[in-house]
Design a protein that fits this description.
With 53 residues, this protein is an alpha+beta fold. It has a domain at 1-34. Helix content is 15%, strand content 8%. A two-stranded antiparallel ribbon has the order 1-2. The two termini are 41 Å apart. The model has no long low-confidence stretch (mean pLDDT 77).
Length: 53
């Protein structure tokens, strides 16, 4: 679920030089995809298989 303004980027590669207000130079970008948060504990099936070893 995306919330808020669309992701944008400022391309700095190449011979581009920005000074002052560069807000008009931002381009649409693909947002980062973050993995779901975990509680830091191993998955129950992984923990069970390790105990059976």
């Amino acid at each position: 679920m995306l919330v808020g303004a669309p992701a944008k980027k400022l391309t700095l590669a190449g011979d581009r030089c920005f000074a002052g207000n560069a807000s008009g130079k931002f381009e649409v970008a693909k947002p980062f995809v973050f993995p779901p948060a975990t509680d830091g504990l191993p998955h129950p099936l992984v923990a069970m298989s390790e105990r059976l070893r």
